[in-house]
């Protein structure tokens, strides 16, 4: 899951070497915190949040096998 987010984010940004994904696991959920270069935050979010929403949809679909809730947060 972490690798999936990393690959997608690196394809979107101008500074792929500064893409970092941190997993915060709880009893019922896993939250992935995506941090990118400050200039690339807009590219990851997209117009009206469309790219961020699509990224969250892909990750949620890939997480169906796990019994935990998965979310993605974009941190600057």
Automatic annotation (TrEMBL):
Q: Which Gene3D superfamilies match?
A: 3.30.300.20
Kindly state which keywords UniProt assigns to this record, in alphabetical order: Cell shape, Cell wall biogenesis/degradation, Chaperone, Cytoplasm, RNA-binding
Q: Where in the cell is it found?
A: Cytoplasm
Which ranges of the sequence are coiled-coil?
none
Q: Which HAMAP family match?
A: KhpA
Cross-referenced PANTHER family: RNA-BINDING PROTEIN KHPA, UPF0109 PROTEIN SCO5592
Q: What is this protein called?
A: RNA-binding protein KhpA
| Originating species | Paenibacillus rigui
Q: What is the lineage of its organism?
A: Bacteria, Bacillati, Bacillota, Bacilli, Bacillales
Q: Which gene is this protein's source?
A: khpA
